[in-house]
Amino acid sequence: QVQLVESGGGLVQAGGSLRLSCAASGRAFSSDSMGWFRQAPGNKRELVVSISWNADITSYADSVKGRFTISRDNAKNTMYLQMNRLKPEDTAVYYCNTRGSNWVWGQGTQVTVSS
Fold first, then answer.
1. Do 15 and 24 contact (CB within 8 A), yes or no?
2. In the chain, at which end, N or C, are there fewer CB atoms within 10 A of the end residue's CB?
3. What tens digit of pLDDT does each residue of 43-82 get?
4. Cβ within 8 Å of residue 5, ≥6 positions away
5. Measuring CA to CA, which residue among 70, 61, 59 is closest to residue 89?
6. Rounded distance between C-alpha atoms, residue 99 and residue 102, angstroms
7. Mean pLDDT over residues 14-29, rounded?
8. What Rg, from alpha-carbon coordinates, does the chain have?
């Protein structure tokens, strides 16, 4: 059973930055494409960025392109999301999972951006 633990969220003013971390335990994720998802109140959970198993391919939703950067450290079984120039519309609970959301969801980390 894989366990995913997200961390690094918080309250930040618009224009600020946060760095999220996703730690996986229970199995190595080095062979999996991974993604960061987010869910705002009243909205469906959406994939905002993904990264291939060896980090050579990344894909960003238009809403975050140029502001967010995904990375991973397979040796540490950890994935990161650097979020810059945050906007109030980025406010959501952020989750990590395989790109196909194959694993059990973690608790997520709340990101709140004030205007």
1. no
2. N
3. 999 999 999 999 999 999 999 999 999 999 999 999 999 9
4. 22, 23, 24, 25, 106, 107
5. 61
6. 8
7. 95
8. 13
Cα dihedral value 75, 72, 14, 12, nearest 10: -20
3-state secondary structure of 7: strand
Q: What angle do CA 78, 111, 8 make, to 5 degrees?
A: 35
| Closest by CA position to 34, among listed 52, 56, 16 | 52
Please list the residues that pair with 23 across neighbouring strands: 5, 78
Among candidate residues 110, 96, 107, the one with its CA nearest the CA of residue 18: 110
Query: What six digits make up the tokens of 86?
Result: 């945050």
Q: How far apart are CA 60 and CA 36, in angstroms?
A: 10
Can you give the three-state secondary structure of 47-66, one letter per residue? EEEEECCCCCCEEECCCCCC
Distance in angstroms (rounded) separating the CA atoms of residues 65 and 83? 10
Name beta bridge partners: 67. Answer: none
pLDDT value of position 13? 98
